[in-house]
Amino acid sequence: MSTSFWKPGSARPGSSLDRSSEASSPLITSSSSPNTLPIHSSRLAILHALSSNPILILSAPTGSGKTTQLPLILHTDGYPSIIACTQPRRLTAISSASRVSSLLSSPLGSTVGYTIRFETNTSSETSIIYMTPGTLLRECIRDPLLTRYSVVVVDEAHDRGVESDVLLGVLKKVVRKRKDLRVVVSSATMEVEAFRDFFEEDGVTVLQIAGGKKFDVEVAYLKEPCEDYVRETVETIWRIHTDEPQGDILAFLTGRDEIDSALQQLSDRQLDLPASAARLHLLPLHSGLSTEDQTAIFPLPPSRAMRKVVVATNIAEASITLDGIVYVVDCGLVKTRNSGEVVDDVRVEAISRASAIQRAGRAGRTRPGKCFRLYTEEVFLKEMRRSSIPEVQRTDLSSTILLLKSLGIDNLVKFPWVPPAPTAKNLASALEKLHTLKAIDDHTRLTTTGMWMSELPLPPHLARILLSSATEPFLCCSEILSILCMLSVTSAFFAPESAETQLSKRSFSAQEGDFLTLLNVFLAFSRNGRSRKWCNLHRLNFSVLSRAVSIRGQLERYLERFSSSAEGYHLQPKSSALRTPDAVERIHKCLLTGLYPNLARYNPSTLSYTLSASNQLVHVHPTSTFFNRQPPHGKRWIVFAEATRAREDKVYIRDLCVLDDLDWLISAVPGVYKVETRWGGTGGKGSIVHTSGEGDDM
């Protein structure tokens, strides 16, 4: 006889309703669920904890089944409405939903589904939804009390992503108003005490589950530090392949370029293998891949004689289970982004001990495994942090604050931030940015524009551009929709830096810059019937462009809904500038409403660019149409979408457009800049001056 606990929102134990509902929701049998995982031995403790307190802090090792089995335990025990389970990355949300739906022998999207940015696979029958934290936060805008959920599971809380941390703060406020809501905060390596203290006033239970991996994982360290971790990764993978028994390999590197380099080196080495030797099935995994390409890591290799090798960023660090992985190669490094006013600092730094444990935990699922750490044991014990620095300490908070404002949370200082709270400087910087974007007024109150921006699944500066495009004087909504959907996907071209792709790209290039080049690609794809064959001929990724079409449709539906409201009578979501004589001017002016800080000047004497905000030298990224080219017709001012500082301390700018006239900038964002004329030398020179900074000579 199974023991049942009361679920908030259902009948109390002992009633006839409770007994009938209990009989109609049997536990999953061993034939449909791997109920030998450690979390099943704690099933009764979990249910008892949730019947006693609204919040459960669940610490369970990797391999214990918390990601896939915990929602199933809650579902089969009869929680009355939807169970949400957040995952820090879209791939883990999709793969977890797919795994659980297969355990239930039901199609993905029926009982179990997922929701990520720009993609949903659910139905009216869905009882378990895997999603990213940002998706659930945006749902709070329409339903602040999350009334359709009975349980919210925040998985991988140790990740300390800004959206996960903010979600926990929002949930802390919601459980005080909804006595029937239950919250589970779970991870293998989180600091339990910190989360317990955070929820202490709200009724919290801490449960630590022993056990985890079915098999031991042997950990090996380098005796001495290595000089080139990419080369050492390749050498280690090759030694495993030639010396170790059969079993798949998961290796961690820090970024796309390193992954591509390592895979190319391994592919070249395979050419020297004898015909009878086993081959490597080489697969990349990073955020720059489409969802379709990311999920290619899950199927078995084409041949049983092949060994699968996945080379990944930290995207594969948690909640992704590849059953065949026996060997893990950990470089011990991760790439982090620290937001700046204009330039984002992208650094390669040591991972935390918690991340190292997570990486090692990817092995040992189906047989004893090995983890090769490409650093010394002393580095692990003495130099690595215990846990990762919370993202809220190093990222732009404008999206976060816009969301909190849309939820009616105006006092940002009193908001329950998971410690440590963001600095006052970061909060003030985000508020200033939102004010310039017209998302908040002079009293920091949310405007109608700001409310619409908070609903759009775009960063605030891109949301502002989209809303501007549907209003006077820009009226170029059709073109901006196409440009933004292309900016929201990975590169549309295969191997964008290769000579073959660069040659193909020329047929779409616009002399005005990358934004209009992206528009040309999208329009050509649409004109040619969205054909896969046409994409192959032009080295374009059909799945990426198809996703761009889907994103465009979703964004357009948002605008149509806004325009049908009383406040949105002035929006014109069907407007187009394509066949007008001032099309380029209107499109570029519209882009400036969100990209106004990203201004740079071309120096013909040095063939380089200088940022207006800081006089810093920047370089055009090789994927840009302006790489190794100067702006046409003697023009000097450009605006770009993104600037990042690379490891070699160079700053690269991506997605550029040329400004015909500085007056475009002044009229697009009144009050932010002014143009002065300075006299001296051979005559007058124009100078662009930020109203809160110093000027740059033109």
Automatic annotation (TrEMBL):
Transmembrane segments: none annotated. Residues 47-208 form the Helicase ATP-binding domain. GO terms for cellular component: catalytic step 2 spliceosome. The keyword Transmembrane helix does not apply. Residues 232-408 form the Helicase C-terminal domain. InterPro entries: DEAD-box_helicase_OB_fold (IPR011709), DEAD/DEAH_box_helicase_dom (IPR011545), Helicase-assoc_dom (IPR007502), Helicase_ATP-bd (IPR014001), Helicase_C-like (IPR001650), P-loop_NTPase (IPR027417). GO terms for molecular function: ATP binding; helicase activity; RNA binding. Residues 1-34 are annotated as: Disordered. Keywords: ATP-binding, Nucleotide-binding. Residues 22-33 have a biased composition (Low complexity). The keyword ATP-binding applies. SUPFAM superfamilies: P-loop containing nucleoside triphosphate hydrolases. PANTHER family: ATP-DEPENDENT RNA HELICASE, ATP-DEPENDENT RNA HELICASE DHX35-RELATED. This is Pre-mRNA splicing factor. It comes from Pseudozyma hubeiensis (strain SY62) (Yeast). The lineage of its organism: Eukaryota, Fungi, Dikarya, Basidiomycota, Ustilaginomycotina.
